[in-house]
Design goal:
The chain is mainly alpha-helical and 218 residues long. The chain is 61% helix and 2% strand. Helix 4 crosses helix 5. The longest helix is centred in the middle third of the chain and has 27 residues.
């Protein structure tokens, strides 16, 4: 059953690729044993991409490539329908399918194509909703990161603290890494990150709707 689900296949492929890349990256440079490198890589990638947030190693001391992959996992999140945070694998897949369709239409302008997931066409309303979610997610992430950086946090800390909060993950990188905490974050910064956590947990739209003046004019 799981093998027939297109989202599950993409999710498992991503996890496998990320685990292998991190394993090769931290092998010899951090861990002398390939088995040990694989064990830590598999656990941390699985923990971050499912937004569980557990840590069995100080991955902030890992090479830049491994840290970038873990940061990327914070954005991807789990699969649709789960209680995990992040943008969800299904949305990412829909975005890539839509992007490919637009490139295909440039090459074949008269072709009639549709975005399909699991053999079923995706409606224009769903595509609009996914793109809207992506733009809001990215825009709010950038805005919150700018505010955190304005409070004096270094770039890596600002980026990862917002990514970890909006993805409902927990640990980030640098000063909010797995062996650190958010105690040093300024009072206003804590409220910004709390807001980001609410955005991520409630899937952005319900929170943003409450902030739109038109909602209260009904």
């Amino acid at each position: 059953v799981f093998g027939k689900d297109s989202e599950c296949r993409v999710f498992l492929i991503l996890v496998t690729v990320f685990v292998l890349l991190v394993t090769l990256n931290i092998y010899s440079s951090v861990y002398g044993s390939l088995a040990k490198a694989f064990r830590y890589a598999a656990f941390q990638v699985s923990s971050i991409i499912t937004t569980t947030g557990f840590a069995t190693a100080d991955f902030d001391k890992w090479p830049p490539l491994s840290k970038f992959i873990l940061l990327l996992c914070m954005f991807l999140g789990a699969m649709a329908g789960s209680t995990g945070g992040g943008m969800k694998t299904m949305r990412i897949k829909v975005l890539f399918r839509h992007g490919y369709r637009e490139v295909f239409r440039i090459i074949h302008p008269h072709a009639v194509t549709t975005v399909k997931i699991g053999g079923r066409p995706v409606s224009s309303n769903t595509l609009s909703s996914v793109w809207g979610f992506f733009v809001l997610y990215l825009g709010l992430f950038i805005a919150a990161t700018l505010l955190m950086a304005a409070m004096g946090l270094d770039l890596i800390t600002a980026i990862s603290s917002v990514a970890a909060s909006i993805g409902n993950i927990g640990p980030g990188l640098a000063m909010v890494g797995p062996t650190e905490n958010f105690l040093f974050v300024p009072f206003t910064g804590k409220w910004i990150l709390i807001f980001c956590m609410l955005l991520g947990r409630l899937e952005i739209y319900p929170v943003v709707v409450l902030l739109v003046p038109e909602y209260w004019r009904k």
